[in-house]
Amino acid sequence: MRIKTYDIHTTILSNVKVAEDHYLLRCKCPEIAQNALPGQFVHVLISSGPGMLLRRPFTIYTVEDDEITMLYQIIGQGTQQLSEMSIGTTIQVLGPLGNTFDIEDTLDPAIIVGGGAGIASLMLLAVVLKERSIPTIALVGSQNKRRLLSVDDLRAISVPVHIATDDGSVGHHGFVTDILTGLLTKQDLHHPIIYACGPHGMLAAVAKISTEHKMPTQVAMENRMGCAMGVCLGCVCPVRINENLIDYQRVCTEGPVFNAAEIAWEI
Predict the structure, then answer these.
(1) Cα separation of 8 and 30, whole Å?
(2) Alpha carbon 149 to chain centroid, angstroms
(3) Helical H runs in 161-259?
(4) Total-model pTM
(5) What would the pLDDT profile of 148-181 be if each residue is shown by its tens digit?
(6) Cβ partners under 8 Å of residue 174, min gap 6
(7) What confidence tens digit (pLDDT) does each residue in 129-154 have?
(8) Strand duo 257-259 + 245-250: pairing
(9) What is the mean pLDDT of the segment spanning 34-41?
(10) How many angstroms from the chain centroid is the CA of residue 243?
(11) What does the pLDDT read at residue 190?
(12) Angle, vertex CA 104, rays to CA 99 and CA 106, nearest 5
């Protein structure tokens, strides 16, 4: 199914720091807001200045009426410049792009697992899960307390949150996957569906754990993108078609959401 996209010139309504090196940007994009689905993203032209010719991909964090938000991390020159933009600054936003999480109509619980800025891909999903009355638990991991994201937003929609930090400054001292393993060993958690986004190593660990426990798992991949339209092939991901065949699929078009069991994590 071909996704209809819109290329919109809009102005920044707010752009606030929410954690160390992380910002939440809000802008008015009616057509994108009306059509956005959990897991999809937008491609933003930050500036036409030197070094800014390529757009940057950002997951659609939340949707409210005709507005969308983007939760992003300062990584390079583009996101640094974006973080310094004030209210009223013009940006160009293309979207919605990519596929979406497959949400089944079920009473089985959902576990969302977000590592670092990967939680940005799961917030809109959490909203939809709650709207469908699907019991949802969130596992949120970060390097430390200063970089912890989305906990208040998740709790605001009544999603219980388990926290893990690498340095133990808040929550479990260790990886967020430790918490996932603990939850899956509980007898009272009936056939959960797992949704995850975060660093490649974390996703590979989630896939391994879910395979061992025979739990269906969908992951949103965060490969670097160039065109985000499926042309440049710069974001491909190895996907197993069968035991003997691997296909390199584009995260921007065939993804960003994949069945975790189909990805060739060892490549």
Answers:
(1) 9
(2) 12
(3) 176-184, 200-212
(4) 0.95
(5) 999 999 999 999 999 999 999 999 999 999 999 9
(6) 164, 166, 168
(7) 999 999 999 999 999 999 999 999 99
(8) unpaired
(9) 97
(10) 29
(11) 77
(12) 160
Q: What's the token pair of residue 260?
A: 């975790």
pLDDT at residue 25, as a whole number: 98
User: How far apart (Å, rounded) are the C-alpha atoms in residues 100 and 93?
Assistant: 19
For the cut 90, the answer to whether the pLDDT of residue 243 exceeds it is no
Supply 66's token pair: 């005709």
Amino acid letter for position 124? L
3-state secondary structure 130-185: HHCCCCEEEEEEECCHHHCCCHHHHHHCCCCEEEEECCCCCCEECCHHHHHHHHHC
**Quick one: which H or E segment has residue 124?**
helix 123-131
User: Which residue in 137, 164, 258 sits closest to 204, CA to CA?
Assistant: 258
HSE-CB of 177 using CA atoms within 13 angstroms: 15
Token duo for residue 170: 């808040």
